[in-house]
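Student:
Attend to each token:
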Amino acid sequence: YRQDRAIQLTQAFVCDDYKGARKARPRITYLGFTRYWDEFTDYLLGAMGGDGGMDNLLGEVIAKAGLRQLRIAETQKFRHVTSFFNGKSTQPYAGEDQVDVPSRFDPATFASHPEMEACNVTEALLSRLQDNPYAFVAVNYANCDMVGHTGDPEAARQAVEVVDACIGKLLPRLFELDAHILITADHGNAEQMKDYATGMVKTSHTLNEVECFYVAKDAVGVKLVPSGKLSDVAPTVLALLGLTIPREMTAVSLIAGCPDWK
């Protein structure tokens, strides 16, 4: 369950300072199905389970270790690296910086602007890395997903090339910091722009396996297991940071031969 779209709709009805295209706040009584954000009070049902959330998520473990972290993306994917990444909490952890690079283009025009804000995300990240090195950085490049949704194969190809170039621009500074770099995705999209069964344009996510690359200045001796799952990324990050993998993380590190530190 994702709350972002419900939040956008609800804010149009209940917020006095709504920034979207609305002439006046509707004069209605509005009840949400559940609590879409922490300060929202007019809802019908509490969260299923009512256990207050999840413990020892990746960002929380890093924060408990006293380390700094950065989450950065353009607006289209900002929630994915912040509240979604933090168990749907809108409050950052101690030592967590969040950077939202404004998206200039309407989603309907992404095929005409496959670069989106990738270059600005890259420049903002490089600026942060010059002055404020972090133990962990989560950066999301929106291009391959958002442009993939347009169904335009040529635009999707250009989007992939832009992201590839931006990652290449990051690498020299990351190597200077002796960083461990993981490059992956949470689903496929741009790699398949045609429905092979129907011959129609495909604009939705795919079920194809995604790549996970490990990159470092000296990557010799570090091998990844042949296959894994998305939840394995968090314990992999902790292993690379030398932090104990908590028992709440039932997944495993993708690093071959990684000890069980739980």
Remarks:
- The two ends are 29 Å apart (CA to CA).
- The chain is about 30% helix and 10% strand.
- The CA atoms of residues 31 and 43 lie 5 Å apart.
